[in-house]
Every structure is written in C-alpha cells, then in structure tokens.
Write a structure and sequence with these properties.
heterotrimer, A mainly alpha (about 500), B mainly alpha (about 625), C mainly alpha (about 500), A: about 500 residues, mainly alpha, about 0% strand, B: about 625 residues, two-stranded antiparallel sheet, 24 helices, 2 strands, globular
C-alpha cells in the first residue's frame, strides 16, 4: 500500500510539486524569513516543475490515489499551463513589490512570501481539479483554488480596493460554492456514487429529475467560475480591486481549472444527458459573449473593461467546451483558445501593472495621447488589444477561427453567427482604446505617470514572450499548435 | 510604298494626323510665347497650312478611289477572339464627300479665324481646339467601325464644349458649353445602346460587315426587334448631335462661342453628323420604315418649329442658329422620305451658304465692335460693301431664289415631300420655306438697310475675312450645279456618285414629270420671293421695337422650352439628389448605423448600472440566474 | 528568375520595407521609403510577362491550411496598380505630412504588404486573414493624420468592413468544412475547393446563403449601394495619400473578391441573385451620381463618384458575361488611375488652401493653367470620354452585359445613364473650380505645377491615353484569364 502510494505520488509529481514547493516556502519563512530567498526558491521551483512535466509526459492514463484522480494527457497539459501562468504571475508581481514611490507597498514587501505561498497552493488546487475523476476531489480542488485566490486578491491589505475585492470575491464565491455543493449532493443522491465512471453507468440507464436538478446546479457552479453572464457581476469589482498581476492570474488560472474539470465531466458522465443540458450551456455562452461585449462598451476603467472582455472570452471558451468531444478530436480548438487567451491576458495585465499608478483608478481616458509619450509601450498595448479583439493577422483571430470552424463542423451555424456578431460589438471598445492612445491630441494622465525606475526585467520578459506569441501566433500557428497537439496526445 | 492601299493609308493617315499634330503644336506655342505678334503669325499660318494639307490629302483620295477602299492602321479594342475594333478608315463616296466638305470649309474658316481672333490672348488655345475638332470630325467621317464613329462623335462634342466656353471667364459661356456637352451626351447614350443592340445581333461593330449581314437578309424576328432598338438609339443620337426637336436646346446657347466656331461647328460640320450617320446606316432603317416615318415627322416638325422662333430673335447669331436647326429639319425630312442623296445635297449647299452667313454676321459683329443685336444695326451696306454683297448672295441662296444652290437643293427636298403625298409634311415644308425667306429677309433688311441705330461707326473687315466671304459666296452660288436635276438638263453627278452607297427612288423622265417639277419649282421660288418682299416692306424703315403684343411673348421666349426643361428635369434631379443624400444616406442608412451604436451604448449603460458594488445584489443576481436555469429546465422537461 | 520565389519576393519585400522604414530615424525616412516603394514598383514590373505562378508551402497541415500564393492576370495588374499608387502617394506626401513621418511611411508600406498578400494568396483562410489585416494600417492612417471628424470616420470605416467580413468568415468556414465533409481531408487551397465544387456543387440553399455571406462582405468593401455610407466620411477625413490608396486599391479588393472567389465558387447562386444585385448596382450608380452633384465638399463629391463608378463595375460582374468581366476588370484599373489622380489634384489645392469647399475656388484656369488642363483630362477620363481609359472599360461592360443570360438588358440601359449623370457632376466640378471669375484673393498665391507635380501627373495622364488608345497590353492577359474562369462556369449561365 505504501509503495503504491509512493508510485502514485511519483507519477503525480507535477501536481504534488505545487504543494511541496508551498511547504518548502513555509519552512523557509520559519528559518530565514528574507523575502528575496523565498522568491528565488519559488521561481526555481516553478521552472523545475515546468521542465520536469514537459520532459516526461505519462502517455498511458493511470488512475492514482485509489481512483480519485487520474494522470492523463488532459491533466498534465492543464497542470503545465497552470504552472506557466503561475510563473508568469510571479515574474509580473516582482516589480510591483519594490516600487519605492509609495510606502504603502513597502509594508507588503515583507509579506511577499505569503503571496507566493497562496499562489502555489491555489496552483495545487488547479492540479487536483485537472486530475480529479471523483466528485469529492473535484470539490476539493475547486475550493483550494478559490480560497488561494481570495487571499491573493486582498494582498494589498492597507488599500481599501484590494480588501473590498477580496471580500466580495469571498462572499459570492462561497455563495456559488454552496450551489456547486448542492449539485454534487443531488448527483450523489441520484447515482449513489461519487466516481465519474459509476455515475456514468447510472446515468446511462436514465437521468432522473433529481439528477437533472443536480446537473443544473453543477452547470450553475461552472458558469459562476467561468463568469458567465447571470453570474458575472462580481468580476468587474474584483478585477478592478485586486493587484493587477493577481487579476491576470485570476482571469486565466480559474478558467484553465474549470475547463479541465468540465472537459472531464461534460464528456464524461454528463454525456447521456447531453440533450438536456446542451441548450442551457449554449444559451449561457452566447448571452455572456453578447452581454459581455455590450457591457464593455461604456466601461471607463480599463480593468473593468478587460473584465468584461474576459467574460466574452469565457463565452467563447464555453462554446469550445461544447464542441470539444474527445472522439471527434476537436479538443485542439479549446486547448489553443485557452493557451493563447491566457498568454494575451497575462501580457495585457502585466503591461497595465507596469503603466498604472495605484493611487487612483486607471481609467480609459487616462490613455489619451499615450502614443506620443510612451510610443513603444503603447505599441505593445495596441498589439495585445488587437489580439484580444480577434482581428487578423494576430493569434487572437486564429483561435476564434478554430472555435468557429469546430462549431460549423458540428453544424451549430446560428451559434457561430451570434458569436461572430458578439465579437463585432467587441471590436468597438477595443478600437476605442487604440483611438485614445494614438489619435487624440489631448494629453491623458497615463502619459505623465513616471514609470518605475527599476529595470523590471522579469516583467519585460513576460510582456515580450506573450507579445511574441500574439504577434506570430496568427501567421505561424504551428509555433504553439504542434506543442498543444503533442501535449494532448492528439497528433 | 507602291501598291495603292499603302499610299492611301499614308495619305489618309496624314489627313487625320496633321490636325492632331497641329493641335499639340499650337497649344505649346500659345503657352510658350503668350500672344506676341510673331506667335500669332506662326500659329495662324501653321494652322491654315496644316488644314490645307489635310484638304488636299482628302481631295487626292477622293480623286484616286473608285468605289470604296478600306485602310487599317492598328487594332484598338478586341472584344473576343472573333471580333475586334480597329483604327481604320472606310473611304467610300459618302465619307469622302463629307470629308471634303469638312476639310474644305474648315480650311476657309481657319483662314477667317486667324483674322477674326486677332489679339485674343487665347489665340493658341483656340486653334488647338479647332484643329482637335477637325481631327475628331475626320475620325467620325472616315472610321470604319461604329466605335470609331463614336470616338469622333464624342470628340467633336468635347471640342464644341471647349470652344463654346472659350471665353470661360463669363459664367454663362461656361454654362452654355456644359449644357451643350450634357445634351449631346444624352444623344450619345442612344448611340451607345444602338451599338450594344447591334453587337448583340451581329457580334461585330464594323460597319461594312454589319451592313453586309443586314443586306444578306433572313433575319429572325428577335434580331429584327434588336435592330429596331438600334434604330431608335441611332435616331436619338442623331437628334442629340444634329439638334432636332427633343435635344435642340443646346444649339442656340452654343452661340456664346466665337463666330468662326459657330460657322464651322454649329453650321457646316458637327451638326451634319446626325444626317451622315442616318445615311450611313440606311440599310438598317430600311428594315423598319415606321422609324423613318418618325424621323421625317421630327425633321418636318423641327423645321417649322425652329423657323417660327427664328422670326422673333433679335440677336443675329441666334437667328442663324434657329435657321440651322430648321434647315437640318429639312435634311432629316429628306432622309425620312428615303431621299438621302437629296439630304446630302442640301447638307453640302447648306454648309456653304450657312458658313457664309455666319462669317458674314461675324464680320458685321467685328465691324460694329461686338454688337450682336440687330436692333442696334441698320444701313451699313455702304460702310461694308463686300460683306453686304456676299451676305446678300447667302440670304438669296437660303431663301431659295433660283438659280442659287439653296433653291436647287431645297426644291429637290420639296419635290420628294410633294410626291410622298403626306399632307402634314407638305404643309410643314412649304410654310418653313416661306418663314425661312421671311426671317432671312428680316435679318438682311434690318442689318443693311434703313438708318443706322448703332453706337460705333461700322468699318469693313480685313482682307483675310472678306476674301473667305467672297470664296464662300461663289461656292454657294454655283454649288447647285453639283446635282442639277436631269429633268432640267443637269447631269445629277452627286446622285450617280452616292448611288453606290445609299439607295434613293429614281425620278421618271416623262413629259408631265417635267411639267410638274417646273410647276413645283415655280411655287417654291414664288414662296421665296414673297417672303423676301414681305420682309422688305415690313422692315424698310424699321424704328425700334416690334411684336409688342402679349401673344408674341410666347414666341420671343422660345415657347419657354428651356424653362420647361429646367423646371421638369434639372430642378427635379437636383431635388432628388438632395433627397437621396440627406434622406437615404443621411437619415435611413446612417440613421440605422448610428441607431445601432446608440442602442448598444444605452444597453451598455443599463448593464453598467447593474454594477452597484453591493455584494448582496450580486448574490441576488447569481440566485436569479440559477432560477432562470431552473425555469428553463422546467419549461423544457 | 520568374519562378515561385519571385512570388516570395513579391510578398515579403513590402513587409521588410515596412520594418526598415519603421526603424529609420531622422528626416531621411521619406527618401528611404520612396526609394523602397520605387524598387518594389520595378520588381512588380518585372513580372509583366508572367502567365501563372504557383507557390504552396504548408502552413498548418492538420487543418489543411497552406501558404498558397497564386499570381495570374487578375492579381498581377492590381498589384502593379497598388505599387504605382503607393509610390506616387508617398512621393506626393513628401512636402505635405510633417509629424510622425516614420510611422506614416511604415503604415503605407504595411498597407501595401497586406494588400499584396491578400491579392496573391490562394488559400481561403489566408486570404481572409489579410483581407482583415488591411483595415488596421488604413484605420491608423485615417485616424492619426486625418481631418477634424477623423475619429468618427475611421471608426465607422473599420467597424462597417469588419462586421461584413466576419459574416464572410462564417460562409468561408462553411465552404471549407463542406469540403472536409465531402472529401474527408482538410484543404483550404482555393483551387482544390474550386475543382471540388465544380465536380459536385453544393445544394442550392447552402450555396445561396454562403454566397450571400460572401456578397455582404465584398459589397461593403466595393461599396455597393446600401453599404456605401462609410466611403464619403472615410475619404473626406483621410489624408490625401490615404484617400488615393483607399480609392485606388482598397475599393478594388471588393470587386476582386467577387471575381476571384464569390462568383466562380457559386455560379448558380450568383445567377439566382443577379437581379437584386444588378438593382443595387444601378441604384448605387444613379444615387452616387446625383448625390455627388449636390456636394459642396470636393472630396465627398469624388467619393460619391467612386460609388457610381464601382456600381458600374459590379453591374459588369453580376451580369456574368466574358466581355463584361473584361470591361469590369479594366474599369477597376481605370478607376484606380482616374480617381487616384482626382484625389491628388484635390489634395494639391487642399494642402495649399486648407479648404475643400467648392465655392472657395473659382476661375483657377487663369491662375493655374497647367493644373486646369490636367484636371480637365482626368475629369473627362472619369466621365469615360472615348479616347481615354474610362471609355474602354465602360464600352466593354455595356456591350458585354447587354448579352447577359442572367439579368435583363434593361439594367444596362439604366446603368448607362451614368454617362450623362457622370458628365453633369464632373463638368459641374470642373466649372466651379476652373471657369468663371476668381472672387477669393487667396487663390492668387496658389502655385502652379512644379517639377514635383509633373513627375506625378505625367505618368497618370500618359496612362489615361495609353489605355485609351492601346488597351491590348492590359486587356489581352485579362481576357485569357476570364476565358479560363468562364470555362468553369456552367454553360447555361454564361
């Protein structure tokens, strides 16, 4: 039993690695509480984990830990993606730590290791979520992920907006976890088991009303996490308040986790009830694309605007989930979308954290005339904005194209049409940003804000990598496409 | 360079290209040396010599070509593998006669213009347009394909646009030019549609092939329908270019241009293009005779309509303009009655005496320092004897006094009208003949007789102008010999010459035919003399005003045709344009677009109001969202 | 030399040029960019004798996407036109644009790069990528160097075209997926799709709605009647060089798309929708001409005249006759030359007097004789006077479309009234600017053509007369290409 455990943990090293690194940092806090060392330790640890999981991919899916989790291509891919996102977030957070012009953050420099610990444990939650094939481990993973992020949101304790966002995220998160739990409970009640395969067997024979109620609750839980429209109201305030790198982390890691879990569930035990939940899911996705884009039109704060844009991207992810049935081999559009979307969001939020001045809300009007003063930075910003808008020849278009192609292939013609109409509306507010930066003659506030003196090499590295992916992703998709296909063993 | 077609192509190439070369030359010299004396000399001598060379080339070809010849220069537009349009000349009797008239009269008018335009700053520019006009007219006359004719057709329209608005600093000259071009364009639209119809039926636009295919006969009813459309188009084109009833309004305003322009373009050459085209495409018209009927009716109606207006005009050039429209009406009447040779004969004689009259009027205006209103002239026959005598010959010729050319050609047309037994055409023809002689008499008496009513003393024009007047006077006197009817011992040379190309009913040579033609000739000359004597007594001691009765206001304002056109067409087009712009574009389409934008902005404002910032409301929305899902599940169960 | 890698050079050179120009500092940037444009024009000229060139490299195998480049008569002459107009407009804006010069020139080269890539690509998806990418440089050109209302104009331009093309994306994906469903393997290269759809055409309904999605996008770009309101705003607010390229090249992409993709792929649908589309073209022609006549802003007048001209081109296309198509293609090139020249001429006045109001000018023939001669020639070329280039195109369209089996000849008669309406507004423009007396003393200081202007206008005027009197060098290759395309269209539609 012990060596079985040892074998499983060896297999699940990339997922357990998160927790190991977290515990290592906690011990470091006790012995030598200097933040710089824990920072270096966390970066090295993450890089080691990334290289380890890229090197040895477990090709044969094996259930571990007594059948509560499985290590297959999906789990490893999404875990790897989570690792990369975490690394990029840490690198973007570093300059935020020691910008000296406001003593408020000085205080938080000492607590930086706590930031790292919360980050790593929420990453661990993602790993568990990605590999869970049992409702309980699913719930566990989801909660560890969310709780980690609640703390990260409130990291700037002395700043009212940060704590407000953490508090709101906590309250609403708890509320919807209750709904999620209800779902699990009803499904357990209907099927008598928590393991996906057993539930699948019972659902194959017939979906009782109790089970369908459970499915609805489950759906609502996922919809909340992906911030679909009726459940999206928290996003704007939370994204606005949280420290900008954390917003980037939150916008990406939560979606990755939910996608990993939903992929297993939707095409697992929910498969027999496909005709039941499919219209709801399609309705949720389309409404969130349309309303997400429409709501973003009049947003004044940039982070709120990007929050709504992430809602509409969430809608596209939902559609990607819908078409990603493993037999049809259409997993690729979903995986490509989440990868490129994460890269672009991290890049944008890293750039905003570099440009912004925490004293007051970074509104879109401040961007006026940025093109004249900080031309290179605004050029990169324009690149990200065009990528997010899905305008060719950048990567943003390519991923939308693949999703639409998969939709048309499974003759969801009208769904594709409405999604396209949504991204037309979306183009309006992205263009407004470009227009403000380059075409207006007045001088906005952002142009005068002094950039932080220090080199911020880590942040520049993150922005450079993500900008390159967005720029070349459209014309040479094989850059990331082959890696995704190999990782998901679809080749 | 030995075989005849080589020489012909060289000669005809020279005939056409010399004016084009000249056009570029004079423009460059005019621009380079401004208007010093020497530049004027070079340009005038050069222009006249270039025109003379072109005339002699055409004369050479006229003498050396028997039957018809075809000379190709290079391929222009290739439609498909089978058919293409080339730059090529068709040298047959019809085109050569018109070519001779164009270049002959053109040379004389160039000579006259060098005197008339002396001292005008745009001297070089004027001769450029004049030479360009002759080039386009030659293209129109000699081209072997309808597209080539169309090139010449619109080329002359363009040059008349430039020449009418030559003194462009005055707004109304520019407007007159624009009006001429646009009305011509309406006619050209008809020509274009005719070309399309013919291409649809025959697959080619080369005139010889076209006419051969038509004469080959056995055409399906569908093909006949398209040929009818083509004929309608050609009639519209001809009425546009030759200023007939619906589209004549541009010719009177075209008098805004210098007088040599009016003489060359709006009397002798351009306006005859319509007659030439209808004669050239006669086989088509012979297939549907009802269109010829319409043509004859248009011709007759225009003749009497224009003549009735000419009587009331006080501007000497306006009188001549309406007289041209009326005489053209005569020609179309002849073409309509299947008498193209008579039409062509009248075309030639009309070119001579109308050019003479215009140039005479030009020298009168020149003498009276740009005075054009006849009420301020009178009694200048002593001051300008040469002009007086030459204009007298012109007036007698047009009035139809035997034995001058006008009488012979008009008599032939009256002869055909009489034998066509259509009483309304006969009525039109004879009343027009009377009215023509009356208003020409009026012009003659008002300008040269009675006491002088002008401001400046008249003086005779320089020799370069009067010499041309004398030559033209001689021409318009003896031109009748060209086609002197056999019945009266003539040899009808023009008839034989043109018979190869156009078909016309041959006259009998019996006794009573002779007597009836004599009777007819008597009537027509009587009508002419009566008109003149009436005018003599009416205007001998002309005081000042006339036709003051209110009824005459309709005639003085030219039946208000211009005002009707302007009100019915131009203003409405402007109103439609404005309505389309503000209404369709501004209100409907942009309204819809900006509407979408404002709707989405309002919706996004309402969504933003949802972000109240209070957590309880967020939780409430989560719950409502879930309720919606439940409701959906319940309704879908 | 003229093999596939010539195509590579043709595509990649403008991209490299954009980078070079973007990173040159100082005031040498305008000379560097003009010389690069000149070099590119020469490169384009080299390919004159080429009949057909293929270049395919795998872009992304699993989904059958491939870098297909395909050069033939249709794309070649448009590339030549765009290279020529870019060279001229960059040379023109030397004395006119002063701020952010590097960005200005870089954007023009980027615009040319995307246009050429779009013209050359044989792969549907790749065509779509650059079809959209064209909008970005134009968006910035109008937005940054434009007139007072540039923000509204450029936003409207971008969103309007972007919306239309996204609808085309759905149609495009449908064609590409139907191919996969039919043959079982992915390939988006246009030729394989074309052969497939000739062998077993789609059901009529799907063919119709896919054709509609293509038509909406191309109609917005052309612009066809109901979708044309972005054009006057975009033209009025764009800098002179910007509106030359916008009118000369970008509008032609719409008609090029129709001739290359929409009609050959779905001939039955094209025949089915021929009547409504001809109706829209004719409305566009008449509306464009009448509204142009009422404009007081010269640039808006020319913009509406472009709507009228291109309505004529689309009529030629939708009537589906071989001669009509030759005429339509020729008219695209002619419109590029004459409207490009008109915009340069207006820009010549605007950049000195800074007003586009037609009443501010008058009697310029005395002050600027050379200018008014060139304006008259270009005006008459755009009114399709025989002997100029406009006439050849119009003649071919009218004569060809008259025999169309797809729509009635009445449309051609209605459309050819454009000859009269065109004369009305163009002569109105020439008269208001050149004739009459000059009331405004400011007009006295206007300078006439110097060396710089002659270098621009001599080639343009020469082209007008060369195509007018000897069009065979352009018409020959286009005719063969049309014959080849029409051989694929079923007999009863031709």
């Amino acid at each position: 039993m012990f060596e079985q455990l040892m074998q499983d943990s060896l297999l699940a090293l990339p997922i357990l690695g998160w927790a190991g690194l977290g515990i290592l940092l906690v011990c470091l806090q006790i012995f030598c509480p200097r933040p710089k060392i824990s920072l270096i330790a966390s970066v090295i640890g993450l890089v080691a984990l990334i290289s380890y999981s890229t090197v040895n991919f477990v090709s044969v899916p094996t259930a571990i830990f007594f059948g509560t989790a499985v290590i297959d291509a999906n789990a490893q891919f999404f875990n790897l993606l989570g690792l990369i996102i975490a690394l990029f977030t840490v690198l973007t957070m570093i300059p935020g730590m020691n910008n000296e012009h406001s003593k408020v953050f000085r205080l938080s420099y000492e607590q930086f290791p706590e930031f790292l610990i919360c980050l790593l444990f929420s990453g661990f939650g993602l790993g568990v979520l990605a590999s869970a094939i049992d409702l309980t481990s699913l719930f566990l993973g989801l909660e560890t992920l969310s709780i980690g992020i609640y703390c990260l949101c409130g990291f700037y304790r002395t700043e009212i907006r940060s704590t407000e966002s953490a508090f709101k995220y906590l309250m609403i998160g708890a509320f919807s976890t209750a709904i999620f739990l209800y779902g699990i409970a009803f499904i357990y009640g209907a099927s008598g088991a928590t393991h996906y395969s057993v539930i699948l067997e019972t659902f194959k024979t017939g979906v009782s009303p109790l089970a369908s109620l459970g499915i609805l609750f489950l759906l609502a839980g996922f919809a909340f996490k992906l911030a679909f429209v009726p459940f999206h109201l928290y996003t704007a305030d939370v994204y606005e308040g949280a420290p900008t790198p954390v917003t980037g982390f939150m916008a990406t890691i939560v979606k990755v986790g939910v996608i990993a879990a939903a992929l297993r569930i939707f095409w697992g035990f929910l498969q027999p009830a496909f005709h039941f939940w499919e219209p709801f899911w399609v309705a949720l996705c389309l409404v969130s694309i349309l309303v997400g884009n429409i709501a973003a039109l009049q947003q004044r704060s940039i982070k709120k605007l990007l929050a709504f844009s992430s809602i509409s991207h969430g809608g596209f992810l939902g559609l990607g989930l819908l078409v990603a049935n493993p037999e049809g081999g259409n997993l690729f559009p979903l995986a490509a979308y989440i990868t490129i979307y994460s890269a672009m969001s991290l890049g944008v939020f890293a750039l905003i954290s570099h440009l912004e001045n925490r004293e007051h809300i970074f509104s879109v009007e401040d961007l006026r005339g940025l093109g004249n003063k900080k031309f290179f930075l605004s050029l990169i910003f324009a690149l990200f904005v065009l990528g997010l808008a899905g305008i060719p020849p950048f990567a943003g278009f390519m991923i939308k194209f693949w999703i639409l192609q998969a939709l048309v292939q499974q003759n969801y013609m009208t769904v594709a049409l409405i999604a396209v109409v949504g991204s037309i509306i979306g183009a309006a507010y992205y263009l407004r940003i470009l227009m403000l930066m380059f075409m207006s003659t007045e001088e906005g506030a952002a142009a005068q804000w002094p950039l932080s003196k220090d080199r911020a090499l880590s942040l520049r590295f993150v922005v450079a990598v993500t900008a390159l992916i967005t720029l070349l992703g459209g014309i040479r998709p094989s850059l990331y496409a082959d890696w995704i296909l190999h990782a998901l063993a679809l080749k | 360079m030995d075989n005849p077609t080589e020489i012909l192509s060289f000669v005809m190439g020279a005939a056409a290209l010399m004016p084009l070369l000249g056009a570029c030359l004079w423009f460059w010299i005019g621009k380079k040396f401004g208007n010093e004396k020497v530049a004027e000399k070079i340009v005038s001598v050069g222009a006249v010599s270039f025109m003379a060379v072109s005339f002699f080339c055409v004369l050479y070809t006229f003498l050396n070509v028997e039957g018809s010849a075809r000379v190709t220069f290079f391929e222009w537009i290739r439609f498909n593998s089978k058919s293409a349009v080339n730059f090529a000349f068709l040298l047959d009797p019809l085109s050569l006669t018109l070519g001779l008239v164009v270049t002959g009269i053109g040379t004389l008018i160039h000579l006259y213009a060098s005197g008339y335009m002396h001292g005008d700053p745009g001297f070089g520019r004027f001769f450029t347009y004049l030479n360009l006009f002759v080039f386009s007219m030659l293209m129109l006359t000699f081209s072997d394909s309808l597209v080539g004719v169309f090139l010449g057709w619109e080329g002359v329209g363009l040059c008349s646009y430039f020449l009418i608005s030559f003194w462009f600093s005055e707004e109304e000259n520019a407007n007159a030019g624009k009006k001429a071009f646009i009305v011509n364009r309406i006619g050209d639209l008809g020509f274009l549609i005719a070309m399309c119809a013919l291409f649809k039926v025959f697959g080619t636009l080369n005139i010889p092939e076209l006419l051969a295919a038509v004469q080959a006969g056995s055409l399906t009813p569908d093909q006949l329908f398209w040929i009818k459309i083509a004929c309608f188009g050609l009639v519209l084109g001809a009425t546009g270019k030759s200023a007939q009833i619906p589209l004549y309004v541009w010719l009177p305003d075209a008098m805004a241009g210098p007088t040599p322009v009016s003489a060359l373009i709006h009397a002798a050459t351009m306006v005859t293009a319509g007659v030439y085209l209808t004669c050239r495409m006669q086989p088509l018209f012979l297939l549907n005779l009802e269109i010829l009927e319409i043509l004859a009716f248009i011709g007759g109606l225009t003749a009497i309509f224009a003549a009735s207006i000419a009587i009331f005009q006080n501007d000497i050039k306006k009188v001549l303009a309406y007289s041209t429209i009326s005489q053209l009406g005569f020609m179309f009447l002849a073409v309509g009655l299947i008498a193209p040779v008579a039409a062509f004969f009248h075309l030639i004689t009309h070119a001579c005496f109308k050019a003479l009259l215009f140039l005479g009027a030009g020298s009168v205006i020149h003498g009276l320092h740009h005075e054009q209103d006849m009420r301020h002239m009178g009694g200048i026959r002593k001051k300008m004897p040469l002009t007086f005598w030459t204009v007298t010959i012109g007036v007698f010729a047009i009035a139809g006094i035997p034995p001058l050319s006008g009488f012979v050609s008009k008599d032939e047309i009256l002869h055909f009208t009489w034998h066509s037994h259509r009483w309304w055409l006969i009525m039109f023809a004879f009343t027009t003949a009377f009215l023509t002689s009356f208003y020409m008499g009026r012009l003659w008496v008002m300008t040269f007789f009675g006491k002088f009513r002008g401001h400046h003393e008249a003086h005779e024009s320089p020799v370069s102008m009067t010499a041309v007047l004398i030559v033209l006077a001689i021409l318009s006197a003896i031109a009748g010999a060209l086609n002197w009817p056999e019945l009266w011992g003539g040899s009808e040379r023009l008839n034989e010459y043109l018979r190869a190309v156009v078909s016309q009913a041959a006259g009998e040579h019996t006794e009573e035919a002779f007597y009836s033609s004599l009777k007819l000739a008597g009537i027509s000359s009587l009508v002419g003399i009566a008109g003149l004597t009436l005018a003599w007594f009416r205007y001998r001691n002309f005081a000042g005003e006339e036709f003051k009765a209110p009824i005459f206001r309709i005639f003085k304002n030219k039946y208000y045709i211009d005002e009707i056109y302007d009100f019915a067409v131009v203003q409405n087009l402007k109103r439609i344009g404005y309505a389309l712009w503000k209404g369709v574009d501004g209100f409907v389409i942009d309204g819809f677009l900006n509407g979408c934008a404002s709707v989405s902005t309002k919706a996004s404002l309402r969504f933003r109001r949802l972000q109240t910032g209070m957590t309880q409301q967020y939780a409430l929305w989560v719950w409502i969202g879930f309720l919606l899902l439940l409701f959906g599940a319940w309704s879908l169960r | 030399m003229l093999n596939e890698n010539y195509l590579l050079v043709l595509v990649l050179f403008p991209f490299i040029a954009t980078l070079i120009v973007a990173f040159t500092r100082g005031n040498a940037v305008s000379w560097v960019s003009i010389s690069l444009a000149a070099i590119y024009f020469v490169i384009a000229l080299l390919g004159f004798s080429v009949k057909e060139l293929h270049y395919t490299a795998v872009w992304y195998a699993p989904l059958g996407l491939s870098y297909g480049f395909y050069l033939d008569a249709y794309s070649y002459f448009l590339i030549l036109l765009s290279a020529f107009l870019t060279l001229i407009s960059l040379y023109y804006s030397r004395g006119v644009i002063h701020e952010k010069l590097a960005a200005y020139h870089a954007l023009f080269h980027a615009l040319q790069a995307t246009v050429v890539a779009c013209l050359l690509c044989d792969d549907l998806v790749f065509f779509y990528v650059f079809w959209e990418a064209m909008l970005i440089p134009m968006y910035f050109i109008i937005g940054i160097w434009g007139g007072p209302r540039r923000i509204y104009a450029t936003m409207k331009f971008f969103l309007f075209t972007f919306a239309g093309s996204l609808l085309m994306l759905i149609g495009l994906i449908a064609t590409y997926v139907m191919y996969y469903k039919g043959t079982g393997q992915w390939s988006s290269s246009f030729h394989s799709l074309l052969e497939y759809y000739q062998a077993h055409p789609l059901s009529v309904e799907t063919q119709r709605w896919i054709f509609l999605s293509f038509i909406i996008s191309f109609a917005i770009k052309v612009p066809l009647f109901p979708f044309h309101t972005w054009l006057p705003d975009a033209h009025v607010e764009a800098p002179t060089a910007g509106s030359v390229i916008l009118a000369g090249v970008l509008l032609k992409m719409g008609t090029y798309g129709l001739m290359r993709f929409a009609v050959p792929l779905f001939p039955e649908a094209a025949a089915h929708y021929a009547m409504p589309l001809c109706l829209l073209s004719v409305i566009g022609i008449i509306l464009g001409a009448l509204v142009a006549w009422r404009q007081t802003d010269i640039k808006k007048l020319i913009a509406y005249s472009s709507v009228s001209h291109l309505g004529f081109v689309t009529l030629g296309i939708f009537m589906m006759t071989e001669i009509g198509w030759n005429g339509a293609y020729l008219q695209m090139i002619n419109h590029g030359i004459s409207t490009g020249a008109l915009f340069l001429l207006v820009g010549f006045l605007y950049d000195q007097r800074h007003t586009r109001d037609i009443s501010a000018y008058g009697g310029l023939a005395k002050i600027l004789p050379a200018y008014s001669v060139v304006l008259a020639i270009i005006a008459f070329s755009s009114v399709a006077l025989p002997g100029t280039n406009g006439f050849i195109g119009e003649l071919l369209i009218v004569i060809g479309s008259f025999q169309s089996k797809v729509a009635s000849w009445g449309w051609v008669v209605a459309a050819s009234t454009a000859a009269v309406l065109g004369a009305i507004y163009m002569l109105h423009l020439v008269q208001k600017i050149c004739y009459g007396k000059n009331q405004d003393p400011q007009n006295e200081q206007l300078y006439d053509f110097r060396f710089r202007e002659w270098v621009i206008y001599i080639p343009l005027v020469a082209l007008v007369f060369i195509i007018g009197f000897y069009p065979e060098w352009l018409l020959g290759p286009v005719r063969e290409k049309t014959m080849q395309i029409f051989s694929t269209i079923p007999q009863h539609l031709r």
